Amino acid sequence: MTETASTCPPWLDRFRAEAPRMPVPPMFEPEPGARAAAVLILFGEGPDGPDVLLTERAATLSNHAGQPAFPGGRIDDCDEGPVAAALREAWEEAGVEPSGVDVLCTLPELYLSHSRHRVTPVAGWWREPSEIAPGHPGEVATVARVPIRDLADPANRLTVKHPSGFRMGPAFRAGGMLVWGFTAAVLTQVLVAGGWDRPWDTGHVEDLPPDVLTLASRG
Hints:
It holds the Pfam family NUDIX. Helices cover 21% and strands 33% of the residues. By secondary structure, the protein is α+β, with helices and mostly antiparallel strands. Strands 1, 2, 3, 4, 5, 6, 7 and 8 form an 8-stranded mixed sheet that branches. The two termini are 32 Å apart.
């Protein structure tokens, strides 16, 4: 599957132009032999303005338990590449009807070292939003449309660290979730590419909460 013609709104123009050439931080440089996966960065316009769809993985999972994420997963043999995989996963995980999504672009591959996946982010415009709900209760606990203005609000941004003192990167408090790790790193780049980023206090550092740390330690 390829990119589709889109009637996306002007506020996505800059992102659409900049996202395909977003810089890849050294820690996310893809490695040979990694398994191929894809995620969907789905933009829409909800009651609170422009937003992006996020899920929260179930706390019972053995990998990435309880972590906020973009809909997505491994690219299966039946998928016609990352676009098809991202749309399929969004349907299975959150009820996003693929026919209502216009594909804007694909972003550079990113390496997720924890699970040894090379991930292709696929950006889409939610032309015809569908009702959303967790599609796999055993895998997805929550789905939420998170306003971009909330993500960009400096009051909702922080840096998280391990109790040992190791800084784990940027984070967001939005949509009733603490968004951190890979998803927060990608969202940080998304805000810059779209021109929505605002200055924030990068010196505001907090420990990753104990319950989040416990879930993350599973793998």
